[in-house]
Amino acid sequence: MRALLLIDIQNDFLPGGALAVAEGDQIIPIVNTLQEQFELVVATQDWHPSDHKSFASKHEGKEPFEMTELLGLPQVLWPDHCLQGTTGADFDPTLETKKIEAIFRKGTNPEIDSYSGFYDNGRLKSTGLADYLRGKGVRQLYLAGLAADYCVYYSAKDALDEGFETFVLEDAIRAISQEGYATARRDILERGGKIIHSSELL
Ligand code: VGL
Ligand code: ZN
């Protein structure tokens, strides 16, 4: 059994959003078509409280994209984004959502960031995604969404750690930083992940 995991296809990560990923909107028609090829589609949603410490606005004298530390981990400071209950946190209205059976929210703990759909960055808490997928009999996990160098990358690493055969759909992701994604891509391949084009899916 295979599943498609849609990562953070939310207004704030799309052009015009608070933390826009260049060309992020271009993945949506691809993702909508892809969903037809899967029996199970699951999504993640970045879902921050307004006092989230990944926000530069919560650190005196810091600007977005500067570095700090949270609970001993290096942390990029972001513009305020994906605030719980706001339009920025909603899925893009052109994203097909009828097939999404479950939505795993992350980033709710204000003390730590949470890139992966499986665990927060400090592995303090699980979202339950791995057990959910195993419970559905999923062995192969296909990833699409935003951003390729953060939430897609961290989700791919955890998927591999959790024993899923992991495929990143390279035409259905976009990165915040191209260099960041180049490094992430090498790491995913080294860890045994596969990077494919959606046209290779049967
Ligand atoms: C993401 C930065 C901060 C992502 C989420 O979805 O890749 N990136 N929060
Ligand atoms: Zn976030």
From TrEMBL:
The Isochorismatase-like domain covers which part of the protein?
Answer: 3-198
Drop me one GO molecular function for this one: nicotinamidase activity
Under the heading Gene3D superfamilies, the entry gives: Isochorismatase-like
Kindly indicate whether the keyword Cell inner membrane belongs to this entry.
no
SUPFAM superfamilies registered for this protein in UniProt: Isochorismatase-like hydrolases
- Pathway it acts in? Cofactor biosynthesis; nicotinate biosynthesis; nicotinate from nicotinamide: step 1/1
Keywords attached to this entry: Hydrolase, Metal-binding, Pyridine nucleotide biosynthesis
InterPro entries xrefs: Isochorismatase-like_dom (IPR000868), Isochorismatase-like_sf (IPR036380), Isochorismatase_Nicotinamidase (IPR052347)
Where does the source fall among the domains of life? Bacteria
Name the Gene Ontology biological process terms.
pyridine nucleotide biosynthetic process
Q: Which family does it belong to?
A: Belongs to the isochorismatase family.
Protein's name in the database: Nicotinamidase
Name the source organism.
Answer: Pontibacter ramchanderi
